[in-house]
Specification:
Blueprint: H1 3-19, H2 54-85, H3 102-106, H4 109-124, H5 133-146, H6 150-163, E1 167-168, E2 171-172, H7 196-201, H8 207-221, H9 224-236, H10 245-259, H11 262-271, H12 279-295, H13 299-312, H14 316-329, H15 335-351, H16 359-372, H17 376-389, H18 394-410, H19 414-423, H20 432-465, H21 469-486, H22 506-510, H23 522-536, H24 548-556, H25 581-586, H26 592-615, H27 620-633, H28 637-653, H29 657-670, H30 675-682, H31 690-710, H32 714-728, H33 734-747, H34 751-764, H35 770-782, H36 784-793, E3 815-818, E4 849-853, E5 856-857
Antiparallel strand pairs: 1-2, 3-4, 4-5
Helix pairs in contact: 1-2, 2-4, 2-5, 4-5, 5-6, 5-8, 6-8, 8-9, 8-10, 9-10, 10-11, 11-12, 12-13, 12-14, 13-14, 14-15, 14-16, 15-16, 16-17, 17-18, 18-19, 19-20, 20-26, 26-27, 27-28, 28-29, 31-32, 31-33, 32-33, 33-34, 33-35, 34-35
């Protein structure tokens, strides 16, 4: 830095000091100091002793500004930046007003304490008449608020308001009184100079700004009425500076946001857009304004601000959700074309490399766009792509699989729904209701999908069995060749295949035209690879690869990529190591007994699905369809009576009274003296189900068993429980009774049986509150001998103070006397630093009341 630059800098500094015609008003500070520093005065305590000359003012302003205010302000900004970096917006929900939370700022207590220390030191170590003291107080109040110390923040802002209010020849003027009105207008704000030169060279006073932060501090505490009063005063104040109007709109929008007045919040938020620090912050507020207008029903304004957010944002996640929201609320006549245009824009984004890491979200949004126009097939297509592109984004993958699951369930594709619900990671779902839905549907759909596969498999086997013998033989042999080819096995001897006739590759290898080498011809390579597998099988890379027995055994472990019609609906049968004509023929229900067994499997599957749809999923229509299919195909009285009874209930649930009455008449005519007919007659309304009846009986029975256990009749209770379990299976009472039964075996020192019962609770009822207790009990039982040995060898000696002396209370009188003050407690005076009054709660110590009696005290 050359000499002239230094001189110029000094001149500018002096100019800044001279521009402040009136120094900031000062106040005295009462500070209790440590004993060794009682006789030392701080610079703030010397305020007013001497005139603040120009050189002193320049020095004081420079040091206060750059050594304290500058550093404290930067550190406070760093706290906010860290809080923003640790916060992530969820664009599927209404955004919070700020992109950080006070919980995140309050976690940085050490940094905020540093800000408070620097502000306090800057105030106490300098003359209170310099121009930066009020700015330090404002920083101090902000730090208290971000630390969630709202009372201290309130006191600081209040002190800044009173101490730096306009003075009349050094005397305080009552704020908002007749003494402070100008031209008949009441004001509380400090009138700021309109001089351009003054604005260029001086920092504006912080008193007016403190009003805005005081209003926000009230909102953060939930004191909305206090905030509203202050806001209304500032809005009507003619002296409130124009430079702070956007900040005032921001706090007004924040106040309306907390009130749920979305229309007003959106309006004032749009007026405060200039307060956004970055382009992305502005885009975020535009997105929020779109959400607020959408909730207020002003769709045109909502679309406008969502489109502005699309234009300004640098966050692709915000962009895709802004497009989705704009599509949802667009009410123009060209809705279909509008949706297609936005869908095309989304897919163009997905093709760009810079959006590669966000393709899962883009495809997920594309699926939602498709659902806006009821295109379920298109939505499923994009959801599959979203799940495949998720990678490490487990939360988005869970959301994609959840939507896939729900769409499959709603379209009655229960097999796919079961697979997708199994793939949904519940812990990564945001909403508890979504987690609960997955947990409720997953086990039920596993049963349903298994039964559907059984039905399809048996139907397929029956169709093949019904073929003419010659046609059936050709069909089975064709299936055998396909399965063996898929596994890389040779064709069966005598099957007519060409796989065992040699490689046939010699002519292809050596007769290639143009002198082309074998490995340079893809078609010859592919053909040779296929023929090699057909002759030698799918050989694993092991030392005994020449042994055909080992090859066949390894090939048999290979999982078929899918099931084949006519053999297995699930693919499980095709995985057998014995893939031959005889093995597949043996699976067909050709004989009468085999056909009856096949029909029994279908009957049981249809009946069980009807019960699961009713009891676990409460899907009445699906339950009706399953039971109606059962009655249409079979007339087995063992299941027909209960099926008809259940249909009466189901048709009542869907308000189909005609069908319910028809089912009731069929039940009465076919089973006039049946058990369920009797139940139906006893419930005239027809609203009792077998599940409800069994539940009542089970509850009553298990209550009796429970009482037997509690009364100590363990042997009888155990026998009753075994009989009840055979009749009712698992129930709500099962874990409780297992736990009590384990206690019985623990008492009998049969720990192995007790551990078995406790393990049944942990594995069979993991959601039960007793599962955790059972796990703890298992751990204790495994260390029972060690714990008992330790307790046996433990020598416990009671201290003299623990002994209880028996006192004869007869003829004793209790006299209550006030206790004398403790002499070891000295009274401490609490002095509050006047420059930062802090609101404290103090509780006066009251002497304990001692009740004296002969021989003992209370």
């Amino acid at each position: 830095m050359n000499y002239f630059t230094k001189i110029g800098g000094l001149a500018v500094t002096m100019w800044v000091a001279l521009a402040s015609v009136h120094a900031q008003p000062g106040t005295s500070v009462d500070l209790k100091k440590p004993k060794e520093y009682e006789n030392r005065e701080l610079r703030s305590e010397k305020t007013g002793d001497k005139k603040l000359s120009l050189p002193k003012r320049v020095l004081q302003n420079t040091f206060t500004h750059y050594n304290y205010y500058f550093n404290a302000s930067n550190k406070l900004n760093q706290v906010l930046q860290r809080a923003k970096a640790g916060y992530q917006d969820d664009y599927t929900q209404l955004l919070p007003f700020y992109n950080y939370t006070l919980d995140l700022t309050a976690q940085q207590k050490q940094e905020l304490d540093s800000v408070i220390f620097k502000c306090t030191a800057g105030i106490l170590l300098h003359d209170l008449r310099n121009d930066w003291i009020d700015n330090l107080y404002l920083l101090l109040g902000k730090a208290y608020m971000f630390r969630k110390d709202f009372d201290s923040a309130t006191q600081t802002f209040q002190y800044l308001n009173y101490a730096y209010a306009p003075k009349d020849d050094g005397y305080d003027v009552p704020i908002g009184s007749n003494s402070s009105n100008t031209g008949g207008v009441f004001t509380i704000a400090t009138k700021e100079s309109k001089s351009t030169l003054r604005k260029m060279v001086s920092h504006p006073p912080s008193r007016n700004e403190s009003f805005i932060w005081q209003a926000r501090n009230f909102v953060e505490q939930g004191e909305l009425s206090d905030a509203a009063g202050l806001i209304e005063i500032l809005r009507a104040d003619p002296n409130f500076p124009k430079r702070l109007r956007t900040e005032l709109h921001e706090v007004i929008a924040y106040w309306f946001y907390h009130q749920g007045a979305y229309d007003s919040a959106a309006f004032h938020l749009t007026e405060a857009m200039d307060e956004a620090e970055t382009r992305q912050d502005k885009a975020r507020w535009e997105y929020l304004a779109g959400q607020l207008y959408a909730r207020a029903g002003k769709n045109d304004l909502a679309v406008r601000y969502f489109n502005r957010a699309i234009d300004h944002t640098v966050d692709p996640v915000m962009e895709v959700y802004a497009r989705l929201n704009a599509i949802r609320i667009n009410n123009s006549g060209k809705k279909d074309s509008y949706i297609q245009d936005n869908l095309n824009d989304l897919l163009r984004m997905a093709r760009k490399d810079k959006y590669e890491n966000y393709r899962d979200i883009i495809y997920y949004t594309a699926a939602k766009v498709e659902m806006e126009r009821k295109n379920t097939a298109g939505a499923i297509k994009w959801l599959k792509k979203s799940a495949a592109a998720s990678g490490n984004n487990q939360k988005q993958k869970a959301e994609s699989y959840l939507m896939l699951s729900d769409l499959s369930y709603d379209t009655r594709d229960y097999l796919s729904a079961s697979v997708y619900y199994d793939s949904t990671m519940v812990d990564n779902l945001k909403l508890e209701e979504d987690q609960q839905r997955v947990n409720d549907r997953r086990p039920a759909l596993k049963t349903i999908s298994g039964n559907i596969e059984k039905i399809r498999e048996q139907d397929s086997l029956q169709r093949v069995a019904d073929m003419p013998a010659s046609e059936r033989e050709d069909y089975i042999r064709r299936i055998v060749r396909q399965l063996r080819k898929q596994k890389g096995l040779k064709d069966e001897p005598g099957s007519g295949g060409s796989g065992s006739q040699g490689t046939g590759a010699g002519s292809d290898v050596f007769s290639g035209s143009k002198g082309e080498w074998y490995f340079n011809n893809p078609s010859i390579k592919a053909k040779g690879y296929t023929e090699f597998k057909s002759v030698w099988g799918n050989r694993p890379n092991v030392d005994n690869w020449r042994r055909q027995q080992a090859v066949d055994r390894a090939g048999g472990k290979t999982t078929s990529p899918g099931s084949t019609p006519g053999t297995s609906g699930s693919g499980s049968k095709a995985d057998s190591t014995d893939i031959s004509y005889e093995s597949l023929l043996a699976k067909l229900p050709i004989t009468e007994s085999q056909r009856d067994a096949s029909h029994a499997i279908i009957q049981a599957a249809l009946f069980e699905n009807g019960k699961v749809f009713l009891e676990s999923l409460e899907d009445y229509q699906a339950a009706i369809e399953s039971l109606e299919e059962l009655l249409k195909r079979y007339n087995d009285p063992r299941q027909k009576e209960e099926a008809l009874f259940t249909l009466v209930y189901l048709y009542g649930k869907v308000n189909n009274t005609a069908a319910a009455e028809a089912a009731r008449q069929r039940l009465r005519s076919d089973f006039p003296k049946g058990k369920f007919t009797g139940i139906l007659e006893s419930h005239a309304s027809g609203n009792a189900t077998p599940a409800e009846t069994n539940a009542d009986r089970a509850t009553k029975k298990y209550e009796e068993i429970y009482n037997l256990f509690l009364s100590g009749k363990f042997d009888q209770a155990k026998l009753e429980k075994e009989a009840a379990d055979k009749e009712f299976g698992s129930s709500y009472w099962t874990p409780q009774l297992l736990y009590i039964e384990s206690i019985y075996y623990i008492k009998e020192r049969q720990d192995s049986i007790a551990i078995d019962r406790l393990t049944a609770i942990v594995t069979g009822f993991p959601q039960s509150p007793l599962a955790e207790k059972a796990s703890t009990m298992i751990d204790v039982l495994k260390r029972r001998s060690e714990i008992e040995d330790y307790l046996t060898r433990l020598d416990v000696t009671r201290s003299e103070d623990d002994k209880v002396e028996r006192v004869d209370m007869k003829d004793q009188q209790i006299v209550v006397k006030p206790a004398e003050p403790r002499k070891d407690v000295t009274e401490k005076k609490v002095e509050i630093n006047r420059e930062v009054p802090v609101k404290t709660d103090s509780v006066a110590s009251k002497p304990a009341i001692v009740s004296s009696a002969k021989g003992f005290n209370f």
